[in-house]
Design brief:
InterPro entries: UCP026631, YdbS-like_PH. The chain is of the alpha+beta class and 526 residues long. The protein contains 18 helices and 20 strands.
C-alpha cells in the first residue's frame, strides 16, 4: 500500500491544495546539499565499538590461537568503518517538491520523500547528541512500517545541529506560514496549553512503569546467572536476608516482601516519570501547529499540524483510574504508534488529574467530546463479558488440575486459580460498565476496557469507511461490533458489543449513505 492509499479523500484533497501553494524550499531543483555534523565522528565510533563489545570480548577471551579470533576483530572494524562512512557520506537537501537523502560509500542508498506527504518532524536529543548540541530529526509521513527500525515512512537525520533541526521543523511543517503571516504578525510566538506540574508526581507510582523495570532486571539477572552457572546465594548478604525470612513467619515475610516491592516500584516509577516528562510543555504555534517538548536526559520535540488531528483519546489504566488520573493522546495522521503513546510522540498530557486531561482535549479540539454522556450497551454485552472472563479462569484451573492429577504440579495452583473466579467476574462487570458510545457534533466517541480503559473521540469526516462485524456468538446474542477505520492513531477504533439495530444506525450515521442500500434492502425484505 502506498502512502496515498492510507489517506482519506479529505486529506488527499488537502495535500493537493497545500502542494499548490507551497513556496519553494531552497529555491530551485539545484538546492544546495547539506551534510551531517562532523562532530558526530567523535561519538559514532565509540557507540559502534560498544555495540560490538560482546563479539570483541568473546574473540579476545576465548579465541587464543584460533583462526576465528580474527573474525571478531574484523566484525568490529567493519562496524566502526560503516558508522564512520555513514556520517561522512550522508547528505540531504530540500527542494520545492521533496526531501532527498543520499548515503553510502560501497553500498549507496538514495531516498526521496514528497514534501506534501510529510506529517511530523520529531526532534530527539539523546545524551550522545547533547554533548555537542546536536539532535536527530525524524521526518515522518502518513505510513506506518511494521519493522523494528525506521522504514519507508521515516527519514532520520541522526546528527544535525539543534538550530538546523528547528529550521527543518519550521520549513517542512509550516507550509502555510506565508498565507497566515498577516494574521499572525501581532500574535505571540506560541500559546501555552499545558505544562507539567510537580504535584503530578503522585500519579507516577500508579503507572506501574517501575514494575516493568523490576521485572526486566530480575529476568536479565536470572538469565545471566543461569548461563554463567552462578548461584547468588553465595553472597553473604543474600544468605543473611534468606536466613532472616526463613526464621520469620510466612505471613510476615510475605507482607515485608510486598511492602519492599511496593516501595521499590514507586521509587522507580517516580524516577521514570521525571526522566520522561521533565519540562513537559504543550504549546500552540501561530501557524496552526501543536508543539510537544519533554525529557530530562533525552529531550524530545514533536510537532503536529492541527490540520492532521483526527481526534483525541483519554487513557485510564486501572491503577491510574483508581487514583483519579489519566493520560491524553492525540489521534493524528503520521504519528508512530510505538509501544504506547508515550513512545509514539502523540502524548498531549502525561499522567495527570482527569479533569486536566479533559481541559487539554477541549483546548486542542475546540470542544470536549470525550466528556459527552455515553449510551450504555445492552445487558447481553454484560453476559458475554462475564462468561468470557470466568470461563478463561475455569479453563486455567482445569488445566492446572489435570497437571496436578498427573503429578506434575501440587494441588495449590489449581485451587489458587479457582480463587480468582470472583476477581475475574469483577473485571468482566467493570468491562461492561466501561462500554459506551455517543455522537457529539462531528465526533464519534467510543469507550471500552477495564485494565486499560480508553475513551476515544474520532472525527467522522476523517474516517476512511465503516465496518460492521459479528461473530457466531454475537449473532446469537443480537450484538455487533462497529469498526471505525481512520488513517491516524491506532488505525481503527471499535464500538464493542452494541445492539444490532443501534450498531447499524451508528454506522450509517458515522458515514452517511454508505450502508443505506443495505439497510433499505433489509427493510424491504422485512
Amino acid at each position: 500500500m502506498s502512502p496515498a492509499d492510507a489517506l482519506s479523500p479529505a486529506e488527499a484533497a488537502e495535500n493537493t491544495a497545500q502542494a499548490a501553494v507551497t513556496p519553494p524550499a531552497e529555491g530551485t531543483q539545484d538546492a544546495p546539499w547539506h551534510h551531517l555534523d562532523r562532530r558526530m565522528l567523535l561519538i559514532r565510533p565509540v557507540l559502534d565499538l560498544v555495540k560490538s563489545l560482546p563479539v570483541l570480548l568473546g574473540a579476545l577471551l576465548f579465541g587464543h590461537g584460533e583462526p576465528w579470533q580474527w573474525i571478531g576483530l574484523v566484525f568490529t572494524a567493519v562496524a566502526v568503518f560503516t558508522g564512520v562512512s555513514h556520517v561522512l557520506t550522508s547528505r540531504y537537501r530540500i527542494t520545492e517538491a521533496q526531501v532527498e537523502w543520499h548515503t553510502g560509500l560501497l553500498l549507496r542508498k538514495q531516498r526521496a520523500i514528497p514534501r506534501d506527504r510529510i506529517r511530523t518532524v520529531d526532534v530527539t536529543s539523546e545524551p550522545k547528541h547533547r554533548l555537542f548540541s546536536l539532535a536527530a530529526a525524524r521526518i515522518g509521513t502518513g505510513r506506518h512500517s511494521h519493522g523494528k527500525g525506521p522504514g519507508k515512512d521515516e527519514l532520520v537525520l541522526d546528527a544535525v545541529t539543534t538550530a538546523e533541526a528547528q529550521r527543518l521543523r519550521t520549513l517542512l511543517l509550516h507550509r502555510k506560514a506565508e498565507a497566515v503571516a498577516t494574521e499572525t504578525a501581532a500574535a505571540p510566538p506560541e500559546q501555552l496549553i499545558a505544562a507539567v506540574d510537580k504535584r503530578w508526581l503522585r500519579y507516577a507510582p500508579f503507572t506501574l512503569s517501575g514494575l516493568a523495570v523490576v521485572g526486566a532486571t530480575v529476568g536479565t539477572v536470572y538469565h545471566f546467572a543461569h548461563e554463567l552457572h552462578f548461584d547468588p546465594i553465595q553472597f553473604s548478604l543474600v544468605q543473611t536476608v534468606v536466613g532472616h525470612f526463613a526464621d520469620t513467619p510466612a505471613w510476615v515475610s510475605l507482607v515485608l516482601a510486598a511492602a519492599g516491592l511496593l516501595v521499590l516500584v514507586s521509587l522507580l516509577s517516580i524516577g521514570g516519570y521525571v526522566l520522561s516528562f521533565w519540562n513537559f510543555r504543550l504549546t500552540r504555534e501561530p501557524a496552526g501547529t501543536l508543539h510537544i517538548r519533554r525529557g530530562l536526559i533525552t529531550t524530545r520535540s514533536v510537532s503536529i499540524e492541527e490540520d492532521r488531528l483526527r481526534g483525541a483519546e483519554i487513557r485510564e489504566p486501572l491503577p491510574l483510574r483508581l487514583a483519579g488520573g489519566a493520560r491524553c493522546v492525540a489521534i493524528a495522521g503520521g504519528l508512530r504508534e510505538g509501544k504506547g503513546a508515550d513512545k509514539g510522540g502523540g502524548l498531549l498530557l502525561p499522567p495527570a488529574p482527569l479533569a486536566r486531561a479533559h481541559e487539554v482535549v477541549a483546548d486542542v479540539l475546540g470542544e470536549d467530546p470525550v466528556a459527552t454522556p455515553l449510551t450504555r450497551h445492552p445487558r447481553r454485552a454484560l453476559y458475554r463479558r462475564l462468561s468470557r472472563a470466568v470461563l478463561g479462569v475455569l479453563l486455567l484451573a482445569a488445566a492446572l488440575y489435570g497437571l496436578a492429577w498427573l503429578g506434575a504440579l501440587p494441588d495449590w495452583p489449581w485451587q489458587a486459580a479457582l480463587g480468582l473466579v470472583p476477581f475475574a467476574a469483577l473485571v468482566g462487570w467493570d468491562r461492561y460498565r466501561g462500554l459506551g458510545h455517543a455522537f457529539t457534533g462531528r465526533y464519534l466517541v467510543t469507550r471500552s476496557g477495564s485494565l486499560d480503559r480508553g475513551t476515544a473521540a474520532v472525527r467522522c469526516d476523517g474516517l476512511t469507511g465503516v465496518v460492521v462485524e459479528r461473530s457466531y456468538f454475537q449473532r446469537r446474542a443480537g450484538l455487533v461490533t462497529v469498526i471505525a477505520p481512520v488513517a491516524a492513531g491506532k488505525g481503527k477504533y471499535l464500538v464493542l458489543d452494541v445492539g444490532e439495530s443501534d450498531g447499524l444506525a451508528l454506522a450509517d450515521r458515522a458515514v452517511p449513505g454508505l450502508l443505506t442500500p443495505f439497510l433499505t434492502g433489509e427493510r424491504d425484505r422485512g
